[in-house]
Design goal:
Elements (H helix, E strand, L loop, with lengths): L1 E5 L7 E9 L5 E9 L2 H23 L5 H16 L2 H15 L13 H11 L5 H21 L28 H11 L12 H20 L3 H4 L7 E2 L4 E4 L2 E3 L9 E3 L9 E4 L2 H13 L16 H15 L7 H12 L4 H8 L4 H7 L5 H14 L2
Antiparallel strand pairs: 1-2, 2-3, 4-5, 5-8, 6-7
Helix pairs in contact: 2-5, 6-7, 6-10, 7-9, 7-11, 12-13
Amino acid sequence: MAISKIQNKKYGNTFQVDIRYKNTLGISKRHIKSGFKTFNEAKKYERDFKEQLEVLIEQGKSTNKTFNDIYYEYMEIEGEVKYARSTKVYYNVTHEMYVKDTIGNENMGSLKYMNLQQFFNKMSEKYNPPTLKNIKKLFAVTFKYALRVGYIRENPIPYIQIPKLQNERRVKVEIISDENLSKIIDALQTVKRTNPYSSGKNAEFTFKSYAMALIIGRYTGLRISETLALKRQDFDLENCCMTVRRKIEYSGLKAKDIHTTHQLKSAKSKGTVEISKLLCSYLKKWFEINPFEFVICDGKGNFIKPETLNHRLREVCKELNINFHYHMLRHTYATELVMSGVNPVVVKDLMRHSDISTTWSIYTHPQNEDQRKALDNLYMEMK
């Protein structure tokens, strides 16, 4: 800390306080205050600032609760009423897998910027940026709660940077070819007469419903929980549009307790979007044999759990030796739109993203072959 005299022709000599310090997060800061008429005024200001700083630092150390303690407290007090069941499951699984037995045992007051940045740097050696972003979200809500109730005086999370991948570790988002998807759809509908659980009219209808779920995912990019909650009324086949209103709530629930919720991933997840005439033709044929309110259901009109559909998919894909999971349909849909030259803003709306950067950075991944084709087409035209 230093006090210096400043010469000013207009106001005469004044004094300036220049204070360098580390805040409660351990981040270096500098505070400058000018305009003091006397040295003693500047000295008093310096002394008061230092005392306030020491109080803040001590208050920041005062809590004896760990990060885990405060996370559990937050989820019990606020998370219970704030989040949908699936969101709570998402946070709890993230906490259990990545935080609970690592930095979660640390005293909240001792978690400074440097500790947390080192934690994320270390985690980046094992996990990709999307996983690290999920972990950061958990830290963000917990630290904001701790700040609100007075456990901490400053929130370090806005300073935390997610380490970028090196080129050799670049994430490759998987997509599915229409050829392989057709094979999967055909195999899904095959009823094995030798298996009493996979035969009969109920099984035949259910397997066709599975296939329809894949077709809808392929041509809309809907998430599996949204697809399985669709009703007939959500489609306007004459005008080729679809309204996404709800998703099924299923995490940790028995089949009889599954229900729909209007609380989707974000506000932008809800809305009406255009669908292709090709999908409309599939749906018209499906509605001729599906008498139920829900578009995707079993032979009795009951909900289909994602785990049940995914289990059947794994069996089929193993037999066909094809790598596939349902979310690949969303990647495929978005990537195809972008590679076909669709305006990014249109892609964003069709995908129902809140931010166009999500559309561009996560769901669009042109491969080297695509890049070569683009260059070849460009320079062939210039010959």
